[in-house]
Predict the 3D structure of the following.
Amino acid sequence: MASMTMIQALNSALDTMMERDPNVLTFGEDVGYFGGVFKVTEHLQTKYGKKRCFDAPINENGIAAVAVGMAAYGLRPVIEIQFADYMYPAYDQLVSEAARIRYRSAGDFTVPMTVRMPYGGGIRGGQTHSQSPESLFTHVAGLKTVIPSTPYDAKGLLISCIEDDDPTIFMEPKRIYNGPFDGFHDRQVSPWSKHAASDVPEGYYKIPLGKANIVRPGEAVTVLAYGTMVHVALAAAKESGIDAEVIDLRTLVPVDIETIVASVEKTGRCVIVHEATRTSGYGAELSALVQEHCFYKLEAPIERVTGYDTPYPHSLEWEYFPTPPRIIKAMRRVTEV
Amino acid sequence: MDDMSSRKPNALDLHVPAPRARPGDKPDFSGWSFPEPGDTPRPDIDEPAHDLREYAYGLIRVMDMEGNALGPWTPQIAPEKLRRAIKYMLLTRAYDERMHRAQRQGKTSFYMQCLGEEAIAIAQTMALNADDMCFPSYRQQGILIARDYPLIDMMHQVYSNASDPMKGRQLPVMYSSKKDAFFTISGNLATQVPQAVGWAMASAYSGDGRIASTWLGEGSTAEGDFHAAMTFAAVYKAPVIINVVNNQWAISSFQGIAGGENTTFAARGVGYGMPPLRVDGNDFLAVYAVTQWAAARARANLGPTLIEHFSYRAGPHSTSDDPARYRPGDEARLWPLGDPIERLKTHLISLGEWSEEQHKAAHEAALETVRTTGREAEKVGVLGPEAPPTHTRASMFEDVYKEMPWHLRQQRDEHGV
């Protein structure tokens, strides 16, 4: 065991898989010599050579398409989209191609590729370095969407994605790359080294896709979150003293419906938290699922705490970002019914 | 707004390209000039790309209209292989004719012929190795035919019947056959081109000997995917052949709408530092020869080649359009570079390796193959209004993922299958 940041854990996942499987290779913008703008691929080119870890032209369309072709050949490419905000040129290849090749060819061809992309705000990145486009992937049949919230999960989930025989979208909450940011931007952020989930095995392990994690058991209200918002929700529970059950979904598709239903049936209340814009966001799907499965156990309307339906604002970032006080308000509304 | 007299002197004016001839006009090919057959030199396969630029603006031709094979690009092909080639072309044309008609008879939803372009896919397939990976567009059915893929399976696919290898999931003609090194056809344009580059990079990464070849129309060279493919192929020297089939028409838009007024499509290769070969796509021998050249170059680790096949789409884009609505009816008949089957036939006869009688017999054999195979396929079923059997209905939920997740199981159960 070593104490790792999320960046180090992701790097360790790639290192572990490149060591184990010569079919695993990685590329993307600035991924090779420089090790990526966030350093997730640092030292991999030195260790594995430039054929297995290399720089790509600034063309996300091409990066995704080339990975589709490599995966169809039989490799397991892991591509980095430098910021999730840059993935739109790759979207056609992911939605119309990667996601559908198994289906349209009746299993003749498959696409075991992993698409890594840092996402989310709270880093003063403005509208082109802060977005959370996960629902653009969860809406697509044939893709799996995965978002970790700790270094331990990040490594185990990324390895599961690389070994998965279907295309996976692996979204990295970049605000918590270096520490579990809790949404209080005016407070000191604790480093990962002080967090239990920074203990990461050096070797191979997996966290199964489709399994959520109850990070805080509670009785009063179920809070569904993923990525950075897991830590913000935990802070909200701590600050408010509300006995919330905080569930880290870890995989958005396929989602762990059993864990969600068991929790909401116990608490009778549900708050959904995400950074992405609200309308047609993943919270809408979660809300529908909870309503379909738990309607007769619900004691209060389901609440969503999300980014607003605006482009990501630069200077007003902390007005936009779902902070603990907003989550606390929502939790109070549903628990005081 | 239209009062041109009120325009300021030196005012800007928007240029919108238009073809020389539309319905009711005489076909006009006067803007084009082609080198004589045999006149274009054949460079060594290791010639640097910057010394090959002029090929983008010429046209590699081997056969003259009397069937003589001329010049340094003349490939060495055994007469038996050429006879096989003409039979494949005749079979492809007969197959197209029958399936087009089947759509008109209501037996399927859609069909796309390759009428007039048969030489391209068939010559290239015969010049490549059987395990070289093809990433086709939707008009290269000749690849499967030249790889002896069962014609009946192509028909099952077009009919989306119970024996369709694609389980009825794809529009007709969107075949897939991994064992024949034929990638699943998308239906979205140009997406397969950068995928072919990725496949070729993977082949090179793995120390394989196989190369990739991909096809797209001149119209879809305007897509970003084409330029992504060109960039990646050039940057990583991918062992891939990128074929632009310039058949002049993208549905109703002439090639000028894709940029063909200003330069050739082969010239797209110049900017990427890629050998840009431009070939008469209706000349079987020339297409075969340039493919051999590009394949040898790729196999020698010398990287990709862009080939523009100058041809003419003699049929409609698909069963959904009527070319008489957007181009002169006799343009195909007057195409200055002729018909690919007629030209290979003339050549073979001039060699003394073929005859009118043999050709007639081969044509009838192709028609008979298509007829009997068609009857067999239709016995299995055609795309129709009857409800499909339950096992077919349940298959709708399969192959979305390797293992069916809970939400799809739930939806399948809700659907009652």
Summary: Residues 389-417 of chain B form one domain. The CA atoms of residues 2 and 252 of chain B lie 26 Å apart. Chain B touches chain A through 44 residues (CB under 8 Å).
